[in-house]
Structure to design on (183 residues):
């Protein structure tokens, strides 16, 4: 049984490695940072809840908490409860959107994970399996990767490791960006 688990883990890792190599090759291997605001133009995502395809650009006008994660990533799993608590603070706020993008290949595994953990935050996957993640979000080619976008779709904050997201400083930032006091 252990060998099967290891084989599954390595095959999943090999698939992810191939995905990231493809991403790096398709993005021109650029490691330079952009000057000025980093604006998110387009990225098609599919809602795990209802299968609806949305574009990240559809969230323009809202403050967006965007997190890239996977069920097999211990730091990702570690920060999920704080993201859930943060999202609860903004529940019902039409000016704030939470977009958690799972990079898992198996949607059943994602669904099982969120049900087991009783998470209610909106979960998405890339709309097309194997489609590259915009290079803007893969600056370090690691997860978890979190971005807070302003109402113009520009990145205001980015963080590339596990974090306690329901801190007052994050709540204050989202309140300021969204122009609301709810949170």
């Amino acid at each position: 049984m252990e060998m099967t688990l290891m084989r599954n883990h390595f095959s999943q890792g090999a698939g992810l490695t191939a995905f990231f190599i493809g991403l790096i090759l398709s993005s021109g291997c650029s490691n330079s940072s952009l000057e000025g605001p980093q604006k998110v133009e387009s990225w098609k995502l599919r809602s795990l809840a209802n299968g609806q395809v949305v574009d990240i650009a559809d969230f323009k006008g809202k403050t967006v908490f965007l997190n890239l994660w996977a069920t097999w990533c211990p730091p990702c799993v570690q920060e999920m409860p704080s993201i859930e608590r943060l999202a609860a603070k903004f529940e019902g706020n039409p000016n704030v959107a939470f977009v958690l993008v799972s990079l898992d290949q198996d949607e059943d595994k994602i669904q099982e994970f969120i049900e087991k953990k009783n998470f209610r935050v909106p979960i998405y996957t890339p709309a097309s399996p194997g489609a590259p993640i915009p290079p803007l979000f893969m600056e370090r080619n690691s997860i978890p990767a979190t971005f807070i976008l302003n109402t113009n779709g520009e990145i205001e904050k980015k963080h590339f490791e596990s974090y306690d997201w329901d801190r007052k400083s994050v709540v204050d930032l989202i309140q300021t960006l969204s122009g609301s006091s709810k949170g």
